[in-house]
Amino acid sequence: MSGWDRQQMADRLAREFQDGWIVNLGVGIPTLCSNTDIGDRDILYHAENGVIGYGPVLPAGQEDLHLVNAGGQNVSLNPGAAIVHHADSFGIIRSGRIDVTVMGAYEVAASGDFANWKLAGQLGGGIGGAMDLAACAQRVFIILEHTTRKGEPRLLRQCSLPVTARGVVTLVATNLGLFAPAGEGFAVRELAPGVSFEAAQTATGAPLLPG
Amino acid sequence: MGQRSKVFGNFTEAVADIPDGAAVAFGGFAGPGTPYNLTRALLAQGAKRLTCIANTTGGAHQPRMPDIGMLVENGQVAKVICAFTAATRPTDVLPFTPFYERGEVEAELVPQGTLAERLRAAGAGIPAFYTPTAVGTELAEGRETRVIHGREYLLEYALPCDVALIRAWRADAAGNLQFRLSQRNFCPLMAMAARTTIVEVEEPVLPAGAIDPDQVHLPGIFVHRLVPIPPAPEGLWTTRRQERAR
């Protein structure tokens, strides 16, 4: 089974971005969405720390140490960028002005619930801005490996871990393809090259629904 | 404040009167705005049973700079209120974590936007507010919610602080501040939430009036003490950060 690598997973979701969208990318694989060539579509990247309109990460020596994105990377600013404080940044989020947030996760459920802030038995957790974004963005897209390192499914009927938000995920990209939570199962929107429906079903903890 | 100058000659004097048991907010987000010099002075000052409010407890990156994790290691912290009380990568262990696991430090985990708004509310005279964030999660269990216009919201309380420690780019003698780029983050909100705001400033303090009133990011009303940061190596400056090796 070949499937998609991380950049291809990110590319597949980034191609869903529409012209004029305001996009918030989570740390890890989601940041790769900003590498995708989506032609002349105009995307405004928003970071939780109040940086609106950031551009590519700058190499060592060219960075401005006063400027990071939410992942702590030293980014550049695109023309038209603006800086606000944290309360205004999350005002933008809670008031529904983020068209899509793309996040990593440990688990996604067919109901659209997802979990990404706390592992089983862990004390404390890392919420960051995930709960605000998940509850308030217009769309929540998730990128994750289809199974754990032990081969256990991450796309499930119900999350086993504490959820970040309920019923919000509309699109999931994994190494096996593109899936949409659909209540009793996941609708298969696209399978990665070399991945059969049967193989994807075997790796999934909920029914897969054709097309 | 009257005519008394807000400018302090060194960090030690500026933090000298922070008492045991104080609630102290620390500005900064992934480097910019973090009060490294004031935190180092607070480590030497030794106040105990502190409640530390910040985005993270620190210690996830190299080079390690003075952070809440060091105050924890120094036995000065009773509680932290943060948006991260574990590393974002579960295989990482924060310096704070073993103290938390042994029950030596309490932790309150707060979504980042809720943390910012709780600080803003404290600075704006608002005692509490409703937010959609965290509804339906473990964080909302047993807490007050309310349906408004058909959507469920969670009640959150303002988070006042005794002291805010922040870093700014420029200040004038009246305490008016400017932040540069992503240095702003939580800093103005923490200053507004605090009774006493102490600022480490990157540029020499300007005479009052040198900053155009239209370009002030945080008015001096919310700023009580200014300490210019000396050049390195005496002063601590931000460097390019690297994630700790796995």
TrEMBL record, chain A:
<protein>
    <submittedName>
        <fullName>3-oxoacid CoA-transferase subunit B</fullName>
    </submittedName>
</protein>
<dbReference type="InterPro" id="IPR037171">
    <property type="entry name" value="NagB/RpiA_transferase-like"/>
</dbReference>
<keyword id="KW-0808">Transferase</keyword>
<dbReference type="Pfam" id="PF01144">
    <property type="entry name" value="CoA_trans"/>
</dbReference>
<comment type="similarity">
    <text>Belongs to the 3-oxoacid CoA-transferase subunit B family.</text>
</comment>
<dbReference type="InterPro" id="IPR004165">
    <property type="entry name" value="CoA_trans_fam_I"/>
</dbReference>
<dbReference type="InterPro" id="IPR012791">
    <property type="entry name" value="3-oxoacid_CoA-transf_B"/>
</dbReference>
UniProtKB/TrEMBL annotation, chain B:
<comment type="similarity">
    <text>Belongs to the 3-oxoacid CoA-transferase subunit A family.</text>
</comment>
<dbReference type="InterPro" id="IPR012792">
    <property type="entry name" value="3-oxoacid_CoA-transf_A"/>
</dbReference>
<keyword id="KW-0808">Transferase</keyword>
<dbReference type="Pfam" id="PF01144">
    <property type="entry name" value="CoA_trans"/>
</dbReference>
<dbReference type="InterPro" id="IPR004165">
    <property type="entry name" value="CoA_trans_fam_I"/>
</dbReference>
<dbReference type="InterPro" id="IPR037171">
    <property type="entry name" value="NagB/RpiA_transferase-like"/>
</dbReference>
<dbReference type="InterPro" id="IPR004163">
    <property type="entry name" value="CoA_transf_BS"/>
</dbReference>
<dbReference type="GO" id="GO:0016740">
    <property type="term" value="F:transferase activity"/>
</dbReference>
<protein>
    <submittedName>
        <fullName>CoA transferase subunit A</fullName>
    </submittedName>
</protein>
